[in-house]
Amino acid sequence: MVSRIIPVETFDLIIFGGTGDLARRKILPGLFKRFCDGQIPPGSRIIAAARSEMDLGGFQEFVTEAIADALGLPEPDQIADFADLLDYVPIDALSDQGWSELAEKLPSFDNTRAFYFSVGPSIFEPLAERLHRHSLVDPNTRIVVEKPFGRDLDSARDLNATLRAHFDEGQIYRIDHYLGKETVQNLMAVRFGNMLFEPLWNSQYIDHIQISVAEDVGVGGRGAYYDKSGAMRDMVQNHLMQLLCLTAMEPPSFFEPDAVRDEKLKVIRALAPVEPHHIVRGQYTDNSETVTYRQDVEDPRSTTESYIAMKCHVNNWRWAGTPFYLRTGKRLKARDSEINVVFKRTPHLIFGPEAGEHNNELRIQLQPDEGITLRVTIKEPGPGGMRLMDVPLDMSFAEALGDDADTPDAYERLIMDVIRGNQTLFMRDDEVEAAWAWTDPIIEGWEARNDVPKPYDSYSNGPTDADLLIERDGRYWRGIGA
Ligand code: BG6
Prior knowledge:
Layout: E1 11-16, H1 21-36, E2 45-50, H2 56-71, H3 76-83, E3 86-90, H4 99-105, E4 112-117, H5 124-133, E5 142-145, H6 153-166, E6 172-174, H7 182-193, E7 206-214, H8 223-248, H9 257-270, E8 279-284, H10 293-296, E9 307-312, E10 324-329, E11 336-343, E12 361-367, E13 371-379, E14 388-396, H11 397-401, H12 410-420, H13 429-449, E15 454-456, H14 464-471
Helix pairs in contact: 1-2, 1-12, 5-6, 6-13, 8-9, 8-13, 9-13
Bound molecules: 6-O-phosphono-beta-D-glucopyranose.
């Protein structure tokens, strides 16, 4: 099944930090893919603005290499056509150097205009201020900002205030790239496009929900950033929170930005404070192939967590009594992100205890292989009497939709949404702040108690205490990479 491509309007996208890591790995290859699919019309421009003294030829070479690294060698014709859209301006966000050159390249607002702030948050203020001073912004101009969006409630509020001093909320696109993932959007399609699930989607029928985002990579070259963040700030406050919201929220009346974001906000606000004994923090150790977390971040005493497991409650009518178990970590057994919705057992077993009992379970696999599995109970085949077993009704999207099914990278989707002016998959200021308001006391508690994370083996399932966290409740984690 080939996906439908609807071209966006012509645009000028100016990427501050246009030669940085994110631009190289995600933004530029993503734009190239959209271009090859015919979604970016002629007359659009992609202008990188960065400190490096590069000329246009140098930037075009940089882009070609970035595309080759991310997607494999591009077709010469396609890369030549794409290169025509590119431009480069050496610029300094903290001085006036380069700004009039940028302004000269943007003489009119005929194209939709968006500025991508692919830079550290400390530069947002000077960038925003200079954009206005050089009259580069009109009411239809959009800005795109990336996480980390603050490191606590106060800093997030400051950042929001800075941006709101220069732009309306409707112009600000805060990226959480998990929202751009195809299967994450599918979660909404499955919930709200089917009659089958929604009537059962509550604490009366659901025993518990597990949300797992496991990675096999360590912190790699990002140690300096990561050690100041840890899994809580890096993953839970944003990506896992978004998955939780989409799983738990009420159906919005329309698939429209504020209707969806209002419902997500209600979930975050309904989250109960987490009891300290309902959280397990972990830190990976070495094995024969790898070094420890502490060696990775070059701090032999670091107490930052590379793993978290926690039990949360959404205190509202729909979810009272149904726990949500969240876990995420680096250097785990496999890259595997999934949501498991475990249903309650039938209220009465007509087949007698020897037949066995099973929970229905809906597994939504986000990555690496996207798909949905529903486990249903059937009779064990054969003449051995009435014994029950559970079997998977498996739907791998790749199989069901065919090899041509295009799963765009999250950034491809999100950048096109910026141009379309659709904020549904972007975080609103109040959502970000509410998520920090829930996260802050947890982190403050660890700091006050000098909490030290539990060690776990590299490429394992995480610390054994995380197993106890769920097993105490008579439940068990679904296998990582299983
Ligand atoms: C980023 C985190 O936001 O998400 C990284 O900073 C993490 O630490 C990454 O590795 C995971 O994203 P994905 O798309 O690979 O699951």
